[in-house]
Amino acid sequence: MSKGHILIVEDEIDIANMLRIYFSGQGYTMDVAHKGQDALNATRKQLPNLIVLDINLPDMSGYDVCRELRTTTRTSHIPIIFLTQKDERSDKIAGLELGADDYVTKPFDIEELKLRVQNAIAASARQKNVHPITNLPTGGLIEEYLRGLMRQTRPWAYIDVKIQQFDVFSEVYGWSAGDEVLRFMALLIGEVIDKYGTPDDYAGHPGRDNFVIITHADDVDALTENLARRFLDEIQQHYSFIDRERGYMLVSDGNGDQRVPLMSIGVGYVSTMTHHFSDIREITEMAAENRRRGGSGESSTNNSDDILTAW
């Protein structure tokens, strides 16, 4: 199992390759970006557990990259270690003031950097309640974010998403295949938010087969319907050819083989456009109830009920 996903942002190719090879050998999955904008694009595709960020980049400074990551809701929790040739006290203070978690000066000791990476990822998991598979915020952070939203006047919607038949899939295909589905789901949510949401939208992972999206989008139905359709289309790749062709799994129990539908998602949401919420529990319970009723919105009738209804 991977120890975590690291994004290296470094324009010196030799250093970037050395770090990629070293940390891959230590059990991490790696991505490398040579420009600041490439790094920002990479975080939109997949959230890393940690970013090692050079300050001197060809298109924008590492400070600007850090500022963008810290002011974007979905990436604000990712630990950042600055890696730079600058050794001035003022440079270190500037990086830490932007929210960087650590600062390493070139030339550096690779073993020391490894320990700093390990410590930063561990501290993030302890303090920020991040899911180890998807790197999305879990219960504590989601509640904290909701409390802040409830003090604001800008309208928003809370979307409850559940992967149906996920537990059966994991039993048949194994826990590793189940983890891949969770990573796929996190990536899909990020892509849908990019297309149909806003830069301030938020995604969380409170439970193994349960995800949440908090969006300021004007058209929540477009977001949820696209999410459901893409899930149905793309989840097929996680099944064997035989299961894809017949459209279900065969699962043995005491009564013989039973047909179990392929995974789908159930979606329900609530919005401050139509409700005033007094506490967080009211929000989560109402959204979950709408999901169980099979509608994406606040009534059970929806043009996409055939897609969104739970099996």
Quick summary:
This protein is 46% helix and 21% strand. By secondary structure, it is α/β, with parallel strands linked by helices.
Describe the structure.
One of its GO terms (molecular function) is transcription cis-regulatory region binding. This is Response regulator. Residues 5-121 form the Response regulatory domain. This protein is α/β, with parallel strands linked by helices and 311 residues long. Helix content is 46%, strand content 21%. The protein contains twelve helices and eleven strands. A five-stranded parallel sheet has the order 2-1-3-4-5, sandwiched between helices. Helix 2 runs parallel beside helix 3 (62-71) and helix 7 crosses helix 8. It is globular. The protein starts with a strand and ends with a helix.
Give keywords.
311 residues, Alpha-Beta Plaits, four-stranded antiparallel β-sheet, 12 helices, 11 strands, disordered C terminus, Response regulator, DNA-binding, transcription, transcription regulation
Gyration radius over CA: 21 Å
The CATH architecture of the largest domain: 2-Layer Sandwich
What is the number of helical segments per DSSP (H or I, 4+ residues)? 12
Looking at CATH, the homologous superfamily of the largest domain is Reverse transcriptase/Diguanylate cyclase domain
Instruction: Give the count of structural domains.
Output: 2
Largest sheet: 5 strands, parallel
What structural class do the secondary elements suggest?
Answer: alpha/beta
CATH class of the largest domain: Alpha Beta
Order of helices and strands: EHEHEHEHEHHEHHEEHHEEEHH
Strand content: 15-25%
Share of helix, binned: 40-55%
CATH topology of the largest domain: Alpha-Beta Plaits
Rough shape? globular
Measured between the Cα atoms of the first and last residue, the distance is 31 Å
Order of strands across the biggest sheet? 2-1-3-4-5
In the predicted model, the low-confidence regions spanning at least 5 consecutive residues are 298-311
Q: How would you classify the quaternary structure? A: single chain
**Mean pLDDT over all positions:** 87
Number of separate strands: 11
